[in-house]
Design brief:
Elements lengths: L3 H18 L8 H7 L5 H10 L5 H5 L12 H16 L3 H28 L17 H29 L7 H13 L22 H28 L12 H26 L10 H24 L5 H18 L6 H21 L1
């Protein structure tokens, strides 16, 4: 299956068998949503692929999975169609395809290049600076990072708009967003349908570990982002520039978030290395792993910078940390980070259709 249309046709074939069987209907949103569709059009396949969280429970429960002649491997074909659809949602597709196939190399070259430019491009120490601002001016940080943050966010928002149009979504109401956020935060589609977890890492046995690691990763990332916002408020609104003490909001939130993010990303990386690659999209496996490693580099480089503060190594660790942060945001629309945006969009559409079916 070399073409996206071939993969969509294979997904139709497998879902037709699934709809006739009905054994997995309580596992996640994919199966009842597939059952509601009278005809599995392309927009239905895009929606179903994004609803799937690759828990793999349906595969290990399926009587028609290989080596059966029907060859049903729904997690893999959903992952392949999902990659195809996400590829078409974001502008500038070439960077996405390059990161998917050469993710580690792209992240390494871009991250080290940016780190070298940031470290060598500024005189050390900065006149009148204190703390980290001795190694890089505040104006330099703002000039570089604000556009690098806003541009990828704009690309992702554009991708969400195209996704909603591609699946023929209706008007998005606040109740749809609220329902999707609640279900997304609970990670219902990693619960196995009964709250006992999924089969990603333990195959035919349920485990809730993957869901807990996702929670730790998201909570850590949000706390680190909150630390950045707290630092901006203290700097601009309260006229309290860095450095800050350990008990201050930026340091406390950043340290707590860094620990959670390190634990979550490391755990997800180990699970991915142990999991069966044949139940996902093998084409993008390297890019997905590179994204996890890049996510892990954010807190570890931050802790290394903290440990090196005041030493001659501080400017280099600052360049490494800021380079990893900048690389993360520049690659955000082209890495698996977009799965959060598209899966939340899929949950919004699912909430529309479920609530609409009740009226």
């Amino acid at each position: 299956m070399d073409a996206p249309q071939d993969r969509r046709q294979e997904l139709r074939r497998q879902l037709t068998l699934c709809r006739a069987c009905g054994y997995c209907d309580g596992y996640c949103d994919v199966f009842p949503a597939a059952g509601r569709a009278q005809v599995l059009a392309n927009e239905d396949l895009t929606q179903l692929a994004s609803l799937c969280h690759n828990c793999r429970g349906c595969y290990y429960s399926c009587q028609y999975a290989p080596p059966h002649a029907f060859g049903v491997n729904l997690p893999a074909i959903l992952a392949e169609v999902r990659s195809d659809s996400w590829d078409g949602m974001i502008w500038l597709r070439r960077p996405m395809r390059l990161f998917q196939t050469r993710g580690l190399l792209v992240a390494l070259v871009l991250g080290l290049g940016i780190a070298a430019i940031l470290s060598l491009g500024q005189p050390h120490p900065q006149a009148g600076g204190s703390g980290l601002y001795r190694d890089m001016s505040h104006a330099m940080m703002v000039t570089v990072f604000v556009p690098a943050f806003l541009a990828p966010i704009a690309l992702v928002l554009g991708g969400i708009r195209r996704y909603l149009r591609s699946v023929d979504a209706g008007p998005v109401r606040l109740r749809h967003i609220r329902t999707a956020l609640i279900r997304g935060m609970r990670l219902d589609n990693l619960s196995g349908g009964h709250g006992q977890g999924c089969n990603f890492e333990r195959q035919d046995r349920f485990s809730d570990l993957r869901r807990k690691l996702h929670w730790a990763t998201v909570a850590g990332f949000l706390l680190c982002f909150a630390a950045t916002m707290a630092g901006a408020i203290m700097h601009y609104a309260m006229h309290l520039p860095a450095p800050y003490g350990l008990a201050s909001p930026p340091k406390f939130l950043g340290a707590t978030g860094g620990v959670l993010l390190s634990f979550g990303a490391a755990g997800l990386g180990l699970l991915k290395l142990r999991a069966d690659r044949g139940l996902g999209d093998a084409r993008v496996w390297g890019g997905e792993l590179a994204f996890i490693l890049l996510l892990l580099l954010l807190p570890t480089s931050g802790f290394a910078l903290w440990a090196a503060s005041g030493s001659r190594l501080a400017p280099w660790f600052l360049g490494l940390h800021l380079g990893s942060v900048l690389t993360f945001f520049l690659l955000l629309p082209y890495s698996k980070m977009v799965h959060g945006a598209f899966r939340l969009s899929a949950l919004i559409v699912e909430a529309q259709r479920q609530q609409g079916s009740r009226r």
